[in-house]
């Protein structure tokens, strides 16, 4: 009689081990930093401006000595926070004529968004860093220090993380400076923003408030 297969937990399919100080640590101990990038109204630029942007972006890509991933997230626009704001304005309004206009505007927005597929796009750049032989290094360090089973103390692990984080931060700086030369603003995601981003990726049905760039 065949044995029943055990169902795997959702976490088994997620390659992320933890998110620490805004850094994504994968199960193979490699690290990822995520930078959110602004968009450009490229079509509204003059021909010279377009050529300049293309040239700067080309120079940026050619200057990289490590891979990056450009990720575009498209989601249906969540209009609920805006509607809630209008509802508050409606309640606080004392002028009857203004209340009528606000109510009509609210209904217009609701009907328009219900009949139109309005999407928002967010742009991200993922910067990787693979610590060199992190597993082997831990065993060697453990053997040198006389630790049982080649284990490494929490203090040493923290030191290794900070060391590798410095290398990753240097790569992030290269990406941010390169994109800035092409007129693209960037902001690094912290722990909360990173967790929110992955939550939305694995729960596409949720319509939470989108990440905002200042």
Description:
The chain has 214 residues and is of the alpha+beta class. The protein has 2 domains: 15-75 and 120-132 and 160-202, Alpha-Beta Plaits (2-Layer Sandwich), CATH 3.30.70; 78-117. It is 48% helix and 18% strand. The chain contains 6 helices and 6 strands. The protein has helices spanning 47-63, 80-92, 96-115, 134-145, 154-181, 191-202, and strands at 16-20, 23-26, 31-37, 69-76, 119-129, 186-188. Strands 1, 2, 3, 4, 5 and 6 form a 6-stranded antiparallel sheet that branches. The longest helix is centred in the C-terminal third of the chain and has 28 residues, at 154-181.
Helix-strand blueprint:
Blueprint lengths: L15 E5 L2 E4 L4 E7 L9 H17 L5 E8 L3 H13 L3 H20 L3 E11 L4 H12 L8 H28 L4 E3 L2 H12 L12
Antiparallel strand pairs: 1-2, 2-3, 3-5, 3-6, 4-5
